[in-house]
Amino acid sequence: MAELSCACARFPVTGLVAGTLGACLIAGFAVGADLAAPRLPSGIPDFSSNNMGWASNGVEFLPLPGEKLVPVSNDPAHPHCGNTISPKCGNQILPPIGDTKNPILQPWAAAQMEKTNDEILAGKESFEAMSRCWPGGVPGLMLFTAEPTYFLQTPKEVTILYSRGTNIRHVFLEAAHSKNPPPTWLGESIGHYEGDELVIDTIGLNDKTFIDWYHTPHTEKLHVVERYKLLDGGKRMQGIVTVDDPGAFTTKWSALHYFARRDLPIADSEYVCAENNETHYFGQEQAPIPQTKTPDF
Question: How far is 190 from 146, CA to CA, in rounded Å?
Fold first, then answer.
């Protein structure tokens, strides 16, 4: 698969400008001859060596150049402006308001997002799973920023550790899905390698998470395929996700995301999310943080 670039990864896009973004991705930052990806002695691409992780580049999915359908992005009437680009917005933070007119959305999903948008525009804070210590789900965990993600590769399994909270995914290699896996926060993930790519196929996801930063909902019919590839000799990582959920979307769709290598030992990256993070965070009525009254050991 040809390399794509992350030039505009920090800027929200809509379906109206997807073509412009695609041109920017290809013309502005594509690399003519990518450096060889590092590999393990077995010959598979090395996503995990030297005690380093992968930091998400931005909080939203990007459209794939050339694709007519694009992932949900911001409402054109309400541009999103986060920390990384606030100087371009007069140093103000503008909340993420999803474009509910995106044709990939089923009517009920668009209506649910419109309700969320109205609450945010009325003054309610837009908190994401990562800020309330809940699992981000799949593919939502791809968008967790700040703390890096770590890949542990063994012959039979790839374990993905998200240092934000206690999110751990077990990707079983060269295995088969269960016939009817019970819905869980992270689902059942089966993986394999295709050339330079790690491919992860996930089903069995519950409907308690969101697809993205814009609170795009999904159902338990959700089926996600992630394809990870190393770029620039292992300095960057590309993730392409394909989402199929006939319960929430009108069609199957794909999106793009990027990660930067972070040379930070996992022991220095662990993050205790729940500490001092009470229910009424910033005075807002938000979902309470996960708590238990009895130990699990």
Answer: 27
